[in-house]
Write a structure and sequence with these properties.
The chain has 2 domains: 174 residues, Nitrogenase molybdenum iron protein domain (Rossmann fold), CATH 3.40.50; 124 residues, Rossmann fold, CATH 3.40.50. 43% of the residues lie in helices and 16% in strands. The chain has 15 helices and 14 strands. Strands 5-4-3-8-9 form a 5-stranded parallel beta sheet, with helices on one face. Strands 12-11-10-13-14 form a 5-stranded mixed beta sheet. A hairpin with a 4-residue loop joins strand 10 and strand 11. Helix 8 runs antiparallel to helix 9. The longest helix has 22 residues.
Length: 340
């Protein structure tokens, strides 16, 4: 197994330099691990950056803006958001990619500070912590006084009435494996439609070029999985990895993507027998490494072509999320893992 620890550090450094060069609302006074761990810190510098980033949109007469949210509601956003709050862990990336970071958000500790794709921003940008997406701290949210709340539709169904009383609220879907639609939708909500289209074009070019390089693999198959135990694996169908039109165009084992989001056994994985195995890795702990070590004593595991070829690669979990920053991070991490 290749842990790629040196490669991951190098990627983070390179990605961090690029991200920080264009990072919104830079906060040189933020502490090293960035962020308000308990929601007590103010996000003044981030808010200033958001205000600057949206000034042009206001001048161009983009407001008010009407969007149709994931629940089919027509929501009017009166002005460019200065203090947006995010209650959906998957969409930090879209807001940072469009230079309008959240002022406050849920899942700060686990996702914002725990995904490699977000690490460069988390190191310098403070976000007020609203707790967990499924149980957000509504008192803290009220205290923050956001001017726009973006929330996962499943959560809105539970607390939407409370959110609507605080600020204009837009419910969003989980978007599945589609990475382009959320960028477009966030572009409209944040007055950044042109920037969203430019980002889609840039990432499409990045994926196309990465796919051309990875074509050297020929018909070798690649499987993306997450370890749920030493005997069970969650199958991932990642559009940016497998799609011929909107991704790297890598080849999955026959029938593999049809099992997306399903759990398969070790024996089931052996039936797919991929040439390369990309394994979801949570960089905040060693649980995945520990499971790989446990698997090393399994005859079935050791029979896999990927294992025999030393082609099992731990890739940070953010590369599986399908967000814009993750696509950039993941493309380079996968290219490095599979081509060296």
């Amino acid at each position: 197994m290749k842990k790629l620890s040196v490669i991951v550090v190098a990627l983070l450094l390179a990605f961090g330099l690029a991200a920080c060069a264009q990072a919104p609302g830079e906060s040189p006074e933020a502490d090293a691990d960035g962020g308000a761990s308990g929601g007590g810190g103010a996000a003044t510098d981030v808010a200033d950056g958001t205000a600057d980033g949206n000034a042009a949109a206001e001048e161009q007469g983009l407001w008010p803006c009407t969007v149709t949210d994931a629940l089919g509601r027509e929501v009017v956003i009166e002005q460019a958001p200065q203090k947006p709050a995010l209650i959906f862990f998957r969409n930090f990336e879209h807001m940072f990619a469009l230079d309008v970071p959240p002022y406050a958000a849920t899942d700060v500790s686990d996702v914002y500070k725990g995904w490699a794709s977000l690490a460069p921003f988390a190191a310098t940008h403070e976000i007020i912590d609203l707790g967990d997406m499924n149980a957000p701290n509504l008192e803290k949210l009220l205290e923050v006084a956001p001017d726009l709340i973006i929330v996962y539709s499943g959560v809105y169904e539970e607390i939407g009435d409370d959110l609507d009383k605080m600020a204009t609220t837009v419910a969003v879907s989980n978007y599945g494996d589609d990475w382009q639609t959320p960028l477009k939708e966030y572009g409209k909500m944040l007055g950044k439609e042109d920037a969203a289209e430019e980002e889609i074009e840039r990432l499409s070019t990045l994926l196309k070029e990465g796919g051309q390089e990875l074509a050297a693999l020929g018909d070798k198959t690649v499987a993306c999985v997450a370890l749920q135990s030493a005997k069970e694996f969650l199958v991932y169908n990642v559009e940016s990895v497998y799609s011929k039109d909107a991704g790297l165009g890598l080849t999955p084992p026959a029938g593999f993507v049809e099992k997306s989001r399903e759990t398969i056994s070790l024996e089931g994985l052996a039936e797919f027998n991929p040439d390369y195995l990309l394994v979801y890795d949570n960089m905040t702990n060693t649980a995945d490494e520990d499971l790989i070590a446990e698997l090393s004593g399994s005859a079935v595991w050791n029979s896999l072509s990927a294992v025999q070829g030393d082609n099992v690669h731990l890739i940070d979990r953010s590369a599986f999320s399908g967000g814009p920053l993750s696509i950039e991070y993941g493309t380079e991490a996968i290219r490095t893992a599979l081509l060296g």
